[in-house]
Amino acid sequence: MRRILCLSLLTLILGAEAAPAQTTPAPAERTLNVFNWSDYIDPYAVASFTAETGIRVRYDVYDSLETLEGRMAAGRSGYDIIVPTSEPSFSRMVRAGALLPLDRSLIPTWGGQAPALLAKVETSDPGNRHGAIYLWGTVGLAIRPDRIRAILGDVPLDSLDLLMRPEIARQLSRCGIAVMDSGIDVLPSVLRWLGRDPNSAVPEDLRAAEAALLAIRPSVRAITASATILDAVAAGEYCVAMTYSGDVIQAQARAEEANRGVQIRYVQPKEGAQLWFDMLAIPADAPDPAAAHAFIAHVLRPAVMAGITNHTRYPNAVPASLPLVNAAVRDDPNIYPTPEMIGRTFTVTALPPAAERARARSWSRFKAGR
Ligand code: N2P
């Protein structure tokens, strides 16, 4: 909330500076409509875009793929820029023709993206025609190591066991367990923890994942929006929370700043963590595709990208931004994972619609606890 507020303030201030003198007729106001994840930009990236182009930004946020997909499925979203994860959402949108093919001649900074990372997302978008890479990361756990040690003693802290083993979860429920409310982004890790295929469409596998989640359900205090989890983790409310990597590191940074003795750590589960890429994309019916292309070109500038990474604590795909990324961010393997850590990740794929629906029903039963 605070972020959104200060973002609109900045836009206001810069907008006011750019306002024409009263004698000249006001030019038709141009607005870019952005729908992005919460806590996922540097306010300066938006403010500098407006300052340079004169295009104002209306900035809305979501905190799960379910919300983004629901909004897009309803049609006529009115957004010029959205930021879907390469799998499963972006690839589905590409196949459904819901995205505009990008005109690279309008994105002079396109070539700054690391070819190896573009190759990774090409499986979701042949030819990389519909999306530029924004930020990427993994799914894992926020933990409070001191609290966990106080309850469980010297246990390994690198495993999803902290959340998924019912007897452990029961003990840790005293200091608070939370799971982000996104079946799409949680179920694959649960399947992997069970030693099953994260992309399984087999009903038996899904039943096993649901049973595992129901077994810990009494110990889970909150299944809630990832943005809410970020704030609560920073405030020290949970000692285990499953969410996105950079959100945990943002929470850790906020807790350090607050200096109230709340120690937070990110755990990339040793069983294998989901690796994901978020894409800058333009809906096929975007009101102002030219402004959207200009925004993508702006965001991919190394200095702008460095600011975004410094602010959000998520890695980007523009190597030339690295010299401008704070050393503490660049050298944190939970932000920029080592090749060995990348080797312990998995990626997901879109499932057949019936399997997606079955997963959504399982997730609802987990939330309801039955
Ligand atoms: C931002 C979370 C975005 C990462 N708060 C999920 N792909």
From TrEMBL:
Its main location: periplasm. Residues 1-21 form the signal peptide. It is found in: Periplasm. InterPro entries: SBP (IPR006059), Sperm_putr-bd (IPR001188). Pfam families: SBP_bac_8. The keyword Mitochondrion does not apply. Required for the activity of the bacterial periplasmic transport system of putrescine. This is Putrescine-binding periplasmic protein.
